[in-house]
Each structure stands twice: as structure tokens, then as C-alpha cells.
Amino acid sequence: MYDIVIIGAGPAGLTAAIYAKRASKSVLVLEAKAYGGQIINTPDIENYPVAAHISGFEFATKVYEQAQALGAEFKFEKAVDIKDLGNIKEVVTESGVHQAKAVIIATGSENRKLGVEKEDELVGRGISYCATCDGAFYRKKRVAVVGGGNTALEDALYLADIAEKVYLIHRRDGFRGEEENVKSLKARENVEFVLNSRVVGLNADKRLESIDVLNNDGSLRTIEVKGLFVAVGRIPENQNFAKVVNLDSAGYAIAGEDCLTNTKGIFVAGDNRVKNVRQLVTATADGAVAVNEAVKYINNL
Description:
The protein is an alpha/beta fold. The protein is built from 6 helices and 17 strands. Strands 1, 2, 3, 4, 5, 6 and 17 form a 7-stranded mixed β-sheet that branches. It has a 5-stranded parallel β-sheet with strand order 8-15-9-10-11, covered by helices on one side. Strands 12-13-14 form a 3-stranded antiparallel β-sheet, with no helix packed on it. Helix 1 packs parallel to helix 6. The longest helix is centred in the last third of the chain and has 20 residues. The model has no long low-confidence stretch (mean pLDDT about 95).
């Protein structure tokens, strides 16, 4: 029996573990893959207070080591269900069952796909969802990025430094991402904006050779690229917990800035909850807030 079980070892979950241990609570962190979450794919974090420049991997490692040093326990198991037994919660994983007085869901989100034919079979052979992971394979080659948010803009900037040319494809005529990133891309001679357009076809033999792009005016263009980096949003990983946590139409856990869900003793923190801003700093803030609420809940049992 733990005081708190935290599902997910991304920035929100790791921060929650630190705050929970500082509150003298026993803590188990469950992680399906590797600690750090999506932030480990960010080569340079520039918008986090105090650390002007730090890689996502270095950031995640420091937070993980800090949580470990405080005594947080980690198990690399995928949580598949939560059972609400009143004052006791059972977190079911692929390996067993863990009991806790409170649960914090900090599972983050996963990449959203384009839904184009051949997309799955070309992953690793021209299709990628992580520019910083796979960009080096396309040095001095032509690539494309799909998306209009900060991730797409940052991917395009990163690739512009190593690729021969970068096509930035977006279904609208404006971007949701930061204007500074847009200005930086416009200043790059090897970046071409392909707006009001979407990718409708992938052409390949064994590897991606070109993409078919349909403009809103009905015109079709084939663009020769060796790599296509997809950054069209994310899907929150809350599906396994829908029986105990209310979700919105997009699958995000419904909770306010207090991180409280509709089920007493179950909290949510990070990019998998309904929120206006999804950044590293808001994820870590959620972790601290969720623990504060969880501790108050436990102390009142």
C-alpha cells in the first residue's frame, strides 16, 4: 500500500514524485516506456526558468535522479486500469496490481497520425514523428514537416540547419505556434511554406520518395522528399482510465487548475488534462498542484 501512485514519469509525474516525497508520503511511479516523456526529444530547452539552455534528456535525467534520491520508487509497467474501492485505489498494470490512497494520472499524450495510406509501413523509412530523433538521417536531403503548432515550427527550424530544403505544410494560412518561430522560418532561404494544403498521398518503393499535397483550391502537387516529419498534434493517453475519470470529446481528462477529477482521490497532471497551455513549465506546475491536493485528500481520510 502506497500513499500515492503516480502513473507516468514525464515532467509532471517526476515533479509530483519529488513533491510527494517532500511531503513525507510513500510514492510509486509507474512508467510504460522510459522516464522523461516527450521532453527527452527536445534538443534545447530555452523557456524554462533558471536553465537558459538544457537538453530535454538532461532535464529529464536530473529530475528523475532527484526523485530517486528522495526515495521515490519506480516500476516500468504499463497501467491499464484504475479501480476505485473508496478510500483505496487499485492501479492495475500488465504485471500486477498496486494499491494506493490516491492516484495521480500523468500519462501525457502520444503522436497523432496523418491517417494516410502507407503511413504505418513507412515509419522509419521516411516517416518520422520526431525531428530531433531522426533528423540526422536526412542531412543535406529534402524533407517536409506537417503541422501548424510550436512542435511543427521547431521541427522545421531544427531541420533547416541540416537539410537541403524544408517544406512546411499546413492546412491553414496561419500558424498556431509562436510568431518568433514563424519569423525565423521566413528568414531561412531553404524553407518553403506550403499553406492551405494537406498531405493526401505517400509515394514509395522501399522508402519514401515523394508526397502528394492537395491544396484547398483543388490543385494537386507532388513534392519529392526523402523524409516527412509529422507534427499534427497529440492524443492524450487517458483511454484506459475513462471508467473513473471524465474525458472531453478529444479524450483529455476534465480537471481544472486544481487537477481534481470527478473521482475523489484521483488527480490528473500534465498534457493529458484539459488546459489552455501545454508547456514544460505548466506540466511541472501541475505535478506540484496535484500532489498538494492529493496530500490534503489523504490527510482527511
